[in-house]
Amino acid sequence: MFRVFRTLGLALGLLGGGLAAQGPEFAQQYAQRLGGALDELKREIATLDSDAKATGNTRDGAVDRLRTNPDTLIARRGEAARYDIERLARLSAQQQALASAMSPLGRLAAVIRDPDVPLARATYQDYEPALPTTTDGVVAGLLGFLAAWGGWRVLSDVGRRVVRRRPQTEVTTA
């Protein structure tokens, strides 16, 4: 029975290692999508700024005029513009955090700490797992293996001790 648990622990460790090794690559693909999203938001806001300037308004003034317009469609465009401006600030801060990370594992930590949910979901939907070919992928895989395998060993050892401590009652026949 011990061999079954040991084999199961090894398999669990390998699975954990394989999953953890995908982290740095996911962070890289997330960073690429983040750059694309930032480029598009900057283009949209530059257009808004240009239109605001052409009509003698500031960006905030133009957004306020759009938001308070009685036409529902125009008011909704104002809300969307306000959301885009706020999202640009959030994504720019996240790009700075990714750029200041010292390693791919640091970038993964930055993504996990504060992800943009729609961007992370889109990255996940297009993500295709692969074998790690970078040092960071291998390190992440080893850390995942050790965490999963070590966790299994601790749980199985605790379980084994509990089973050993149970008092055995003798069955007597009368």
What does this structure look like?
- The chain has two domains: 1-22 and 137-167; 27-128, no CATH class.
- The mean pLDDT is 85.
- The protein is built from seven helices and no strands.
- By secondary structure, the chain is mainly alpha-helical.
Q: What is the element layout, followed by pairings?
A:
Layout: H1 2-20, H2 23-54, H3 59-67, H4 72-100, H5 104-113, H6 117-126, H7 135-165
Helix pairs in contact: 1-7, 2-4, 2-5, 2-6, 3-4, 4-5
Concise overview:
The model has no long low-confidence stretch (mean pLDDT 85). It contains 7 helices and no strands. 80% of the residues lie in helices and 0% in strands.
- Our count of helices gives 7
Structural class assignment = mainly alpha
DSSP strand content:
under 5%
Largest sheet: none
Spans with pLDDT under 50 lasting ≥5 residues? none
Mean pLDDT, all residues: 85
Can you tell me the overall shape? Answer: elongated
As a whole number of angstroms, the C-alpha radius of gyration is 27 Å
The count of DSSP E runs of length 2 or more, i.e. the number of strands, is: 0
Q: Please, how many domains?
A: 2
How much helix, percentage-wise, in residues?
Answer: over 70%
